[in-house]
Amino acid sequence: MKTLVVYASKYGSTREIAEFIAEKLRHQGMEAEAASVGAAPRARDYDAVVVGSGVYMGHWLREATEFVRQNRAVLADRPVWLFSSGPLHLPAGTESLDDPELQPEEIGELREAVRPRDTRVFFGALDPAQLGFGHRMIRKLPAGRDLLPEGDFRDWDDIAAWADGIARALAVPAA
Q1: What is the Rg, in whole angstroms, of the alpha carbon atoms belonging to the chain?
Q2: Tens of pLDDT along 62-77?
Q3: Are 14 and 85 in contact (CB under 8 A)?
Q4: Which of 9, 73, 126, 162 sits at 20 to 30 Å (Cα–Cα) from 141?
């Protein structure tokens, strides 16, 4: 089964997750390719699609949302998974990444449009040297370093387990 893992990444963390997922799928015997939405991959050329986006201020990156919207008909006809990368820590009052409050605002619309088999939120990573001007300025505010802590918070075991679940689902013929 030929699988596309397509992503929108602002600073590279989401790209690394997508590449890791594609690699895990290849290790499971799948034909898998990771590509940026900016590379304009053709979803119709694949049997299954995983779409991932970095999340900023509670929103998927515009180009990831547009990829899903523009490929809605194709994606609705294939197995699809969606993932989000972004929180660096759990907000106060949140107990896990499964909390609905951590779902990006667009996820409801995208679920309705393409009926993904699963959606997942993963922790992200922050390297201050990679930040754009606006995010560098936020980190200079008194609470900015707490809001945007430096480090890699991704749980690679959790990401690997999710990718393995995708591989298992694709290995089972559709009913």
Answers
A1: 16
A2: 999 999 999 999 999 9
A3: yes
A4: 9
